[in-house]
Amino acid sequence: MDNKRPRLFVEVHPQNIKIELHLRNIAYKNITNIIIKEAPETHKWTLNKLVDVNSESNISSISDLITQSYNDVLEF
């Protein structure tokens, strides 16, 4: 694994009515009922895919996204 490549795969940002997750910039597969936004290019964040968690109904899909982000770290 390249020591210079960031190993972060998720950041959790609790907010008043939701939790915002920041995930790695990869092509996520099998996304259902989840909107993935991108942080502006000028931010230059490693975790620039943004996902809002505002109900328990999509927890399993969000868990899958986190797993995909984690697996991306393992591949390097």
Describe the secondary-structure layout.
Elements: E1 10-14, E2 19-23, E3 36-38, E4 49-53, H1 59-74
Antiparallel strand pairs: 1-2, 2-4, 3-4
Summarize this structure briefly:
This protein has 76 residues and is of the alpha+beta class. Helices cover 21% and strands 24% of the residues.
How does this structure look, described?
With 76 residues, the protein is of the alpha+beta class. The chain has a domain at 10-39 and 55-74. The protein has one helix spanning 59-74; strands at 10-14, 19-23, 36-38, 49-53. The radius of gyration is 13 Å and the shape is globular. It starts with 9 loop residues before the first strand and ends with a helix.
Keywords:
alpha+beta
Order of helices and strands: EEEEH
Record field, number of beta strands: 4
Mean pLDDT: 90
Question: What does the overall shape look like?
Answer: globular
> What structural class should be given to the helix and strand makeup?
alpha+beta
Q: State the low-pLDDT regions, or none.
A: none
